[in-house]
Write a structure and sequence with these properties.
Oligomer: single chain
CATH architecture of one domain: 3-Layer(aba) Sandwich
Number of helices: 6
Strand content: 25-35%
Largest sheet: 6 strands, mixed
Shape: globular
Number of strands: 9
Helix content: 25-40%
Length: 235
């Protein structure tokens, strides 16, 4: 794997296509997508519902295979790796914040946040202790032993963020992190994401419809009908 410097290219997509179905039922979702995402800031992916944003980040994260084209993460084309190595690559280097949080109801906040460490083989006590420490940094010190059903939407979102960051991933992907939140809570979550996740050696991609949080972005990729239409960079 190539060494990585500040503001290096973390994600490169070249003529990426994705379709579902065949023949008359075939649906083209991504159409020759070309993009680069750098480390060191928040990259927003914006556009109307159904334009392919979630499909694109799923292909980037390796949750879906591209139908054509290539995706490189930190210089590696993970599609060329054996299946077992692809799983290990995602486990080590990717953090995903899902729109619906996907917290496990039978686990406490700290246990939910510790899941990636437990999956990597860390002892439970050490993993949960690290999760508690991170939750404290995210303002949830008093909620670490609370179950998801007793947490507010904003609190659940912060637990999901902790789970995505706990294993120090190089790429963090967030799917509509403020969709179910009011403006104040959503802005708080984005501020936490910006202050906690953004690092010179890490890339963060955020899919959003929420124009109220655009000011957190260093670059915004505008997408429609399976294409990247334009990229806007901010200082």
């Amino acid at each position: 794997m190539k060494p990585m410097n500040a503001d290096s290219v973390a994600v490169r997509c070249c003529n990426v296509e994705k379709h579902f179905g065949e023949g008359d039922s075939r649906i083209e979702v991504l159409r020759k997508v070309n993009l680069e995402v750098n480390t060191g800031g928040l990259t927003f992916l914006v556009g109307p519902s159904g334009c392919g944003k979630t499909t694109l980040i799923s292909v980037i994260a390796g949750l879906l295979d591209a139908s054509a084209g290539e995706v490189e993460l930190f210089g590696s084309n993970t599609a060329r790796l054996p299946a077992s190595e692809r799983i290990l690559f995602r486990r080590r280097h990717l953090g995903f914040v899902f729109q619906q949080y996907n917290l496990l109801p039978a686990l406490t906040a700290a246990e939910n946040a510790a899941v990636p460490l437990l999956a990597a083989g860390m002892k439970r006590r050490e993993a949960v202790d690290q999760a508690r420490s991170l939750l404290c940094r995210l303002g949830l010190e008093s909620k670490s032993e609370t179950f998801p059903s007793k947490l507010s939407g904003g609190q659940q979102q912060r637990v999901a963020l902790a789970r995505a960051l706990i294993h120090e991933p190089r790429l963090v992907v967030c799917d509509e992190p403020t969709a179910a939140l009011d403006h104040t809570t959503g802005d708080s979550v984005m501020a936490l994401l910006s202050s906690t996740a953004v690092r010179p050696d890490r890339a963060v991609i955020v899919v959003t419809h929420d124009s109220r949080v655009y000011h957190y972005a260093r670059s915004i990729l505008h997408m429609d009908d399976g294409h990247i239409l334009k990229t806007v960079e901010y200082p």
